[in-house]
């Protein structure tokens, strides 16, 4: 996967290949309306053979429960397929939600 930019339902995802993996840079809102768009980008990255997928979230403006569920689904998919999924740079609000739900001990999170 080379650099790829897609927009849909208030979420823009830029995908870039790196050594052994893919970085998905998400900006905008990861919510009910855009979670399927995120899932499609995750599926494509794994279908292309990425051993590691990093979701760079520093540019997210909003993430609701559907967005959190999309992150969990990506993590579960990675585990099933023997791959690695990383949530990178979630903002303070999302970090707090992940901590309150206990997902900070399930997901691999890099700050």
Concise description?
Helices cover 34% and strands 39% of the residues.
Give a description of the structure.
- By secondary structure, this protein is α/β, with parallel strands linked by helices.
- It has a single domain, classed as STAS domain (Transcription Regulator spoIIAA), CATH 3.30.750.24.
- Helix content is 34%, strand content 39%.
- Strand 2 and strand 3 (21-30) form a beta hairpin.
- Helix 1 (35-47) runs parallel beside helix 2.
- The longest helix has 16 residues, at 65-80.
- It is globular, with a radius of gyration of 13 Å.
List the helices and strands and how they pair.
Layout: E1 4-8, E2 11-18, E3 21-30, H1 35-47, E4 52-63, H2 65-80, E5 84-88, H3 92-100, E6 108-110
Parallel strand pairs: 3-4, 4-5, 5-6
Antiparallel strand pairs: 1-2, 2-3
Helix pairs in contact: 1-2
